[in-house]
Amino acid sequence: MTSVALRARALRLLEMVTTPLLPSDYLDLVAPLRSGADLRGRIEAIHPETRDAATIVIRPGRGWKGHVAGQYIRVGVDVDGVRLWRAYSVTSPTSRADGRITITVKAMPDGKVSNHLVRRAKPGTVIHLDQASGDFVLPAVKPAKVLYLTAGSGITPVMGMLRDTALADVVVLHSAPTEADVIFRDDLRDLAADKALRLIERHTDTAGTLDITRLDEHVPDWTERETWACGPTGLLDAAEEHWARHGIADRLHTERFRPAALVTGEGGAVTFTTTDKTVEADGATPLLDVGEQAGVLMPSGCRMGICFGCVTPLRAGAVRDLRTGEVTTAEPGVLIQTCVSAAAGACEIER
Amino acid sequence: MTAIDPTAHLSDEQIEQLGRELDALRDEVIASRGERDAAYIRKVISVQRKLEMGSRGVLLFSLFPPAWLIGTAGLSVAKILENMEIGHNILHGQWDWMRDPKIHSTTWEWDHVSPAAQWKHSHNELHHTYTNVIGKDNDLGYGIMRVDEDQKWHPFHLGQPLWNFINACFFEYGIAAYDLELGKNLHKSRRKNPEFRARAREVGKKIRKQVLKDYIIHPLLSGPSFLTTLGATFTANLVRNLWSHSVIMCGHFPEGVQTFERRSIDGETRGQWYLRQMLGSANISGSKAMHIMTGNLSHQIEHHLFPDLPSNRYGEIAPKVRELFDRYGLEYVSGSLPKQVFSAWRKVFRLSLPNKSVKPNKTVKVPGRAKERVAA
Ligand SMILES: Cc1cc2nc3c(=O)[nH]c(=O)nc-3n(C[C@H](O)[C@H](O)[C@H](O)COP(=O)(O)OP(=O)(O)OC[C@H]3O[C@@H](n4cnc5c(N)ncnc54)[C@H](O)[C@@H]3O)c2cc1C
Ligand code: FES
Q1: Which ligand is nearest to the CA of A133?
Q2: Same domain, A117 and A170
Q3: Which of A96, A147, A222, B119 gets the most CB atoms within 10 Å of its CB?
Q4: CB contact under 8 A, A298 and B107
Q5: Is the same domain home to A191 and A281?
Q6: Whether B98 and A13 lie within 8 Å, measured CB to CB
Q7: Where is the 2Fe-2S ferredoxin-type domain (chain A) (predicted)?
């Protein structure tokens, strides 16, 4: 018998001993980061970056498959006893020798997870993770000239790329309210001093918000550059418009932390079939929120339609995509993203 | 016994006020649920799992009498914790708010021959909705006993002390049969019902797994200790069964607990529903360890008022609930475990015989609606 078959047999025997639980339920108590376990990580350190941002050093479990610079991970954190999932960009380079990864979080006003991670989380805590994903990454063939256009916490995926991949000609145009608010200020200035990049730091409290139509005043050759942009919705919307107007929309890559403009329509009664609960929902509230408020177990991640951490079978009725207004009707095998879908009349989803 | 309605002194408005006060208490707990509660249930689960594995480990050497004793005691406690403080309460959805898929009513399976899904239906949906309503709440005697004067006597009930004892020894099987509504479904007309058959198959599968684990795999792993381990797991299951049966009997059967007429719940208001739960349940007093071992069903009254609040909170709100009973002039039925077990058993014996006098008519017909009846 091969060792794989032997292992499978041993596992089946173990399952007979632990039924109705699984052997992993017991192993999780002592070795939550072992290989074969659900992916988790242990917070090893928390380093403040600014007055409201911190970098979290995470030792990922053995099942961690690595990331590509610029990608994000889904992180599940227990805040006040409740498991909440959010997406965070990886800020450490792929080559980090100790195998740790870092995320850098900016505390949002009233933000549940971000405040918890920045201000309350303790080293030693085990958190839940998912493999890295996202296509806000550099192409295989490195572009000759690059512009990183960022603001606020939008510097995070870009820092991941800067630390990972050296490029010949890089401009970083970064906005933050004040000098003290610039996350990674020292790292950016060091890189600039080493001539690894040209840094344009804009402090918007004094200099005002960047007017994207006057971008050529700061970066005259911007149209020749492949651009990666990450920041608040306003900046990204303006950038997309600007690049499109110049007919080079394909040279702009954006990463959004928040969903783009929302549409709404009529709501309806939502039935969660596994939990056997029915609640009334309006046409603007994502089914993810509706379910969570009703106490239904709803998987989630980015909460804005990009990670597919929330996909759920639509069993009956119709739902509306809050980004496009498009209505999806139930058919066998139809899956919906609950974070960007709202009820469009009565519907049943399998949760 | 005379027809005294213990709610006769309350006006409709008072009953609704009582309901509002209980709703406020519930909201208070929900608003303060948090890290401390989550840490509590995780701790209990962790202790239970370590105790179970440790005890099963010790039982591998059960040929040595001290190992047998320690292992059997540990496994009994582990099984009790698993069914009561952990399984029963998770399946009630008490911990769903944590959004942890590993500790959730829709994913949990317990160390019990009745599959979680079936038990949830008969327990959460039927028993907790129809608490102590004669003819609707099958928990009142489980369909094999008469535990209230107003239940019709039948010669079959003469044997009920024996039925109750057998049920206590094999309680988990009793519950599985009960969740399957075997009594009703074994009728010729229903036996072939595909829905019933599917459910029966589920139970069969669960029994097979449970029996295989406790009575074959674990003894086999013990090698020369095969027979003694078999005896140990059997004993642990027996202890768990007797314990949970006793605790559960104490919840609704002791003297002083009220039962209700079938008609009484038509158009029941929120306040009246609360009132029925208050009068239809009884508590067990005791130490903290005892409360945990009963899955906090020793706070049966609090549990019936708020079935989905975390069990560690029942003890904390009990003084406030008790204060409400006092203020509204209601009897908070509570007693030590031996006293309540004795009281429940005495009733089982007494009601195995037909009612002595003319129908005593002691059931509360309609909680809080005695006046309506007079007027009608
Ligand atoms: C792909 C991706 C990558 C991300 N990477 C990072 C990262 O590297 N670092 C980082 O700090 N965040 C990042 N985010 C944002 C992060 O996932 C959370 O949305 C953010 O931390 C707020 O969560 P919260 O629980 O604190 O706020 P919540 O409690 O969910 O919300 C509190 C309030 O803040 C508002 N709010 C929520 N998110 C934002 C936001 N991004 N900007 C402004 N207001 C907001 C809400 O509307 C609400 O009013 C990323 C998001 C995505 C989708
Ligand atoms: S939560 Fe990420 S796609 Fe819905």
Answers
A1: 1
A2: no
A3: A147
A4: no
A5: no
A6: no
A7: 268-351
Domain that holds residue A225: 146-255
User: DSSP letter string over A174-202?
Assistant: EEESSGGG-TTHHHHHHHHHTTS-EEEEE
The total domain count for chain A is 3
What is the C-alpha R_g of chain B?
Answer: 22
Residues A249 and A284 in one domain: no
* Residues, chain B: 376
- Residue A34, in any domain of the structure: no
**Domain-terminating residue out of A209, A227, A255:** A255
Answer yes or no: do A250 and A157 share one domain: yes
The angle, 0 to 180 degrees and rounded to 10, between the axes of the packed helices B12-32 and B270-279 is 80
Ligand 1 midpoint to CA A109 (Å): 10
- Chain A residue closest in CA terms to B48: A26
CATH number, domain containing residue A117 = 2.40.30.10
CA A81 to chain B, closest CA, distance in angstroms equals: 4
CA–CA separation, B324 and B320 (whole Å): 6
A153 in the same domain as A233: yes
Nearest atom, ligand 1, residue A115 CA: 26
| Pair (A116, A179) in one structural domain | no
- 10-residue mean pLDDT series, chain A (351 residues): 86 92 95 95 98 98 97 96 96 96 97 97 97 96 96 98 96 98 97 97 97 96 97 96 97 90 83 93 94 92 89 94 90 91 94 93
B346-371 b/e (C-beta count within 10 Å ≥ 16 → b): ebbeebbeebeeeeeebbbbbbbbbe
Nearest ligand 1 atom to the CA of A255 is 1
Ligand nearest to the CA of residue A301, numbered in listed order: 2
Interface test with B, best of A12, A19, A85, A277 (most B CBs within 10 A): A19
Tell me the pLDDT tens digit for each residue of B67-113: 999 999 999 999 999 999 999 999 999 999 999 999 999 999 999 99
Nearest to residue B137, comparing CAs of B149, B152, B122, B150?
A: B122
Q: Are B96 and A295 an interchain contact pair (Cβ–Cβ within 8 Å)?
A: yes
CATH number of the domain where residue A325 is located: 3.10.20.30
* 3-state DSSP of B318-342: HHHHHHHHHHCCCCCCEEEHHHHHH
Which residue positions in chain B have pLDDT lower than 50? Answer: 1-2, 358, 361, 369-376
| Atom from ligand 2 closest to the CA of residue A337 | 4
Last residue of a domain, one of A232, A255, A278: A255
Q: What's the CATH code of the domain at A246?
A: 3.40.50.80
